[in-house]
Amino acid sequence: MDPLSITVSTVSLFKEVLLVSRFIYRKMESAKDAQSEKDDLCAQFELEVLFLQSLGHVFQGGITKNQAIDTRWMNFLHRTLERMNDACSAYRTLAAEKDADYQKYSPFLNSTEHNTKIDFDVDAPLSSKKRFSIGQLLGAGGKVKDDPKWDWKWAFIGKRKFESLIREFQRLNGRLKDILPLAIAHMSPSRPDEKSAARLGLKPHYHLRSLASQQPAGVGSFLLKDKMLEVDETGPSVVVGLLSRTKKKTAGLDAVLVEYKEYAPEQSSDRQLSLHKEGLAHLATLLKSAGECDLATLPFKGIMEQDRQHRHAFIFGFPKGTDDSVPPLSLNFMISEGKNEDRLDLDQRFAVAQRLAKSMGVLHADGWVHKSIRSESILFFRSRDGRSLLIHTPYVTNFEFSRPEGQYTGEQHFVEDEDWQRNLYRHPERQGMPTSSFRKEHDIYALGIILLEIGLWEEAASIYRHQREKAPNAQLRPTHLQNIFLKSAKSRLAHHMGTRYLEAVLACIDGEFDGAAAEADFPMIFYEKVTEKLERPFDS
């Protein structure tokens, strides 16, 4: 379809879905039967309808200011809304009989409503004063009143049907929630109001994008000056410590996680130290706000200066609901040394892989880069009772001076780094002596290596060693590691994870995105070529 046609069709689908879903909610909410369990389901469905209402504020007249980009977003919306429309189709006939708004504004009933305008009030109250019987929603019309058979039908038919609808709306709205943060850089001037932005999960992203264009506050505003820190650096995954609430240990101790940002003694000139602290301030600014943006970051507490060791300690709290008496496990440790109970099953591998891709896509869309992501940077925590590892909520750590892309990164004078374990995750342009400033494509390359590790359940170092043994005399060039990982992916990954997962990994590693990350529609390209393909095949 041409851009105008896809826009008209998408807006028409949106109007249809919102009108029918509001009708369903009002009738379910006002029904007299099965009150307690129905109320719980209605509360769940209300959240999904409110999300759709807020979505209406975003794309009245188009998602973005660029028509070519807008078409890509509209195509995604169209596919998603088609599925939502199919999910509530069983209620459409009843809506046509009973609902005045549907009768007046439905594009399916009124050809004049096939346009790009939303003529009705998307924020109309959801509650209905009129009371109905569950039987009316199950096909009894208005003829049946308090008949026990409708309680039976609700329990075995209506409830199951409504629950299925809620699950589908939650799944599909979840997809929309995934892509909306990717679009805000190019959204139309009519930014949604505060309430809608909050419902859509966009408010913190607007804030993070604004931070990317601002000069950060001085590092002093993040320093923890009146604290004492005790650390245990022997843990398998991360440095764990105890942070006093005041200078006195007796005032109470909080379990914390510690990351060190070191600088060489020869970098202690005023100018170099100033640049180092500027980098610290950028990173601290990101970490302070990132927790609200679903970037899978830890709660950031502040920075402690450790001049003797020529480093700064970044202090993080344990996530809510986790056991702070045991250290978290890194993905690298789980793959290389973990116990059988720490192995991820197939569902969990897909879920973790997609979670990481979503976080990176949003980080980049908000204007930031990570610069040092690897499997050691991915942490998993135990539940508060210590019984289970919280697999579905991995946390990303070890951000390395994640200044907004395009700003000074302190690398005009590149520093050579031959750490071979870090080079496993580095783009060929960034191995050894870097030949290029850091770009989003370099983050994406590292993500591809992590996705390969998850898919094969083998650490990158092991993959490298096995391939190296087959050609011990091969010359080690920057592209050598890349070719090793590409070969392993092409020969083994599809068998473990399927072709779509393989395609996502290859897109990250083989340079498909090189030079493309600067394109305005890149966030959606990355979502389609990587994030979306990391779903289980039968869930897509």
From TrEMBL:
Organism domain of life: Eukaryota
Pfam name, any one: DUF7580
Domain Protein kinase as annotated: residue spans: 211-540
MF-aspect GO terms: ATP binding; protein kinase activity
Stored Gene3D superfamilies: Prion-inhibition and propagation, HeLo domain, Transferase(Phosphotransferase) domain 1
Name under which the protein is recorded: Het-s domain protein
